[in-house]
């Protein structure tokens, strides 16, 4: 026997009233909401007034050419929108997506090649009706441009106009070609690795080696090393025997599993940056397919 909800006796407003309120809040207009819902402006206005009467509060300030949410309206909108999104995602997940089925992803190129691509067959097998369009980038745009349904970024979690949800945070580890790894402890092995042709740096993290070597008590050599702009390039160079690289542990996984690289030291170093799923701070609704992908992605990042 299922447990009765503590809100079982509460009479919820009709779904049509809630849809009218959410659309009007998003557009800040009864007219634009009516166009979206295929209703008249008068019908949307009437449904919102009926909702306000049911709740006993005013949800909008009616301005000459627009609407503005009241304090109560602004507080009510986020949980209502989340409920709509979760219902849409659950419906699409159980019964298949309805309507437009293309899903556009924007993903850092190394994250795509090293972490996401090996896992995507599971998503495709689970939701074969969703067609993925994937754009890879080295550096994401500074601000929101709304071109992707799911936008994954690596950084400190602060981007103008965007809300960031942590996806995964991993430390950096030292990897190198197996034949370069010699010694009995971290300091000894690191000194041996410094005899390799070069340290490999990923652009944007030029001081990471300095921080790491200080951590294990080894002096930084005078050579500046080689700088490269992507993690996947750094891994390929390390596998070619050019020297050691400091790489996020999750992105080094394919090279470690294949044996092309080995973890050279036990020590690791925490990064201030991490991978995030970002979305505009605006009131744009999230498509069900995007909700499904984000939920799947979070489970994969947590270990499946």
- Strand line-up in the sheet with most strands: 4-3-5-12-6
- Stretches where pLDDT falls below 50 for ≥5 residues? none
Mean pLDDT: 86
What is the share of helical residues?
Answer: 40-55%
Q: Order of helices and strands, N to C?
A: HHHEEHEHHEEEEHEHEHEHEEH
Number of strands: 12
Largest sheet: 5 strands, mixed
What percentage of amino acids are in beta strands?
Answer: 15-25%
Give the radius of gyration. Answer: 26 Å
Shape category: elongated
Distance between the termini: 30 Å
Q: With helices defined by DSSP (H or I, 4 residues minimum), what is the helix count?
A: 11
Structural class: alpha/beta
Oligomer: single chain
Question: What labels describe this entry?
Answer:
five-stranded mixed sheet; 11 helices; 304 residues; single chain
């Amino acid at each position: 026997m299922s447990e009765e909800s503590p809100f079982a006796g509460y009479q919820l407003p009709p779904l049509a009233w809630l849809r009218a309120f959410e659309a009007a809040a998003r557009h800040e207009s009864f007219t634009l909401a009516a166009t979206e819902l295929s209703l008249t402006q008068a019908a949307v206005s009437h449904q919102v007034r009926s909702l306000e009467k049911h709740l006993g509060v005013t949800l909008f300030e009616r301005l000459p050419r627009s609407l503005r949410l009241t304090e109560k309206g602004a507080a009510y909108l986020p949980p209502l929108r989340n409920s709509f999104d979760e219902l849409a995602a659950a419906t699409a997940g159980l019964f298949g997506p309805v309507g437009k089925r293309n899903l556009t992803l924007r993903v850092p190129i190394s994250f795509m090649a090293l972490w996401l691509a090996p896992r995507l067959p599971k998503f495709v097998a689970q939701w074969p009706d969703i067609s993925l369009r994937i754009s890879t980038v080295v550096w994401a745009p500074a601000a929101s441009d709304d071109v992707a349904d799911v936008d994954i970024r690596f950084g400190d979690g602060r981007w103008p106009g965007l809300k960031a949800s942590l996806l995964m945070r991993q430390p950096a580890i030292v990897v190198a070609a197996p034949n370069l790894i010699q010694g009995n402890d971290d300091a000894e092995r690191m000194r041996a690795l410094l005899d390799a042709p070069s340290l490999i740096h990923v652009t944007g993290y030029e001081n990471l080696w300095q921080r790491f070597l200080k951590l294990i008590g080894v002096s930084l050599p005078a050579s500046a090393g080689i700088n490269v702009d992507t993690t996947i390039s750094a891994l390929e160079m390390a596998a070619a025997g050019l020297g050691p690289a400091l790489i996020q542990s999750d992105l080094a996984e394919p090279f470690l599993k294949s044996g092309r690289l080995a973890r050279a030291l036990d020590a690791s170093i925490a990064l201030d940056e991490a991978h995030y799923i970002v979305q505009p701070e605006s009131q744009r609704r999230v498509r069900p397919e995007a909700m499904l992908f984000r939920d799947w992605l979070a489970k994969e990042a947590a270990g499946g």
